[in-house]
Design goal:
binds protoporphyrin IX containing FE; 66% helix; mainly alpha; 247 residues
């Protein structure tokens, strides 16, 4: 079959290398953190010993550092990265966004999908929400890492808080009351409590959004046919007519 000019597919570079690496490192670390996190969450029912818990938490925290550094770099990349990796192409605000949103929903109604090189308007809302929840998870996790197993960045501060005296600081170990001031320890645990609750609730919210995110990507792929999924490997999307956000 011969194709006319209008139907010829044109390739556009969209996702830069940093964004693609971020995405897949994020997928792998979030999967690993969720798996270990679920075991920690159910450690009582699973009959896991204190030593086992310390080991699980230590691994969770090490993978958490990779996750948090990768995320931190992505947040910075939003200011300095490629055109479609920037905050201006992510945050669901501004005049252009409003125009694109109208065109997008018009397209949904008429069945004539508008093409987007970057995120479509629903994609922008989803990516913004995901980045917010991931950041909340990273921040609460980094605090928790100090309160329980005394790991960086705040482990030393929490040790100082709970130690009986400066001399017993080095004796303070996870799941042990040697060298620990009982009242100070209780205060520290009270401080920690909301971080743990938020880390847990946010985990469930995040899991829910991840399911929606994958459903949205599949939906957009089937409707828009721009190779959205392979673009997260190759960086390139394909279009048969000019994308709406081509500038
Ligand atoms: C998307 C990323 C993450 C997910 C999905 C996740 C998930 C979870 C889950 C489900 C739990 C069990 C909750 C509970 O016991 O109440 C947990 C606990 C924990 N997380 Fe994460 N986490 C993430 C990132 C991080 C990061 C970046 C750190 C720190 C570097 C971290 C440190 C911790 C610690 C220390 C605990 C143990 C809390 C406790 O003592 O119960 N997490 N995480």
């Amino acid at each position: 079959m011969e194709m006319n000019q209008q139907n010829a597919l044109q390739e556009y570079p969209v996702w830069d290398r940093t964004t693609r690496w971020f995405h897949w490192i994020n997928v792998l670390t979030v999967l690993a953190l969720s798996a270990i996190g679920l075991v920690i969450l159910n450690s009582k029912a699973l009959g896991i010993t204190d030593d086992g818990k310390v080991l699980l938490k230590t691994w969770h925290v090490y993978i958490g550092y990779v996750f948090a550094l990768n995320l931190g770099w992505r947040l910075i990349w939003g200011f300095i990265g490629g055109r479609y990796s920037r905050w201006s192409a992510i945050l669901p605000v501004g005049k252009k966004f409003k125009h694109q949103r109208q065109a997008f929903f018009q397209g949904l109604k008429t069945g004539n999908a508008a093409g987007f090189k970057g995120h479509n308007p629903l994609g922008r809302m989803m990516v913004t929400a995901l980045l917010v929840l991931l950041t909340v998870q990273a921040v609460t996790g980094l605090v928790l890492a100090g309160t329980d197993i005394y790991k960086p960045p705040f482990g030393q501060q929490f040790k100082t808080w709970v130690a009986e005296s400066p001399e017993t600081m080095d004796l303070v170990k996870p799941y042990s009351d040697v060298g620990v001031d009982k009242a100070a320890y209780k205060e520290m645990r009270d401080f920690r409590s909301p971080f743990k609750d938020i880390h847990e609730i946010n985990f469930f919210l995040l899991s829910f959004l991840i399911v929606l995110h994958i459903a949205g990507v599949v939906f957009a792929e089937v409707r828009e046919r721009n190779g959205l999924i392979s673009a997260m490997f190759s960086g390139r999307k394909v279009f048969s007519s000019r994308p709406l956000d081509d500038e």
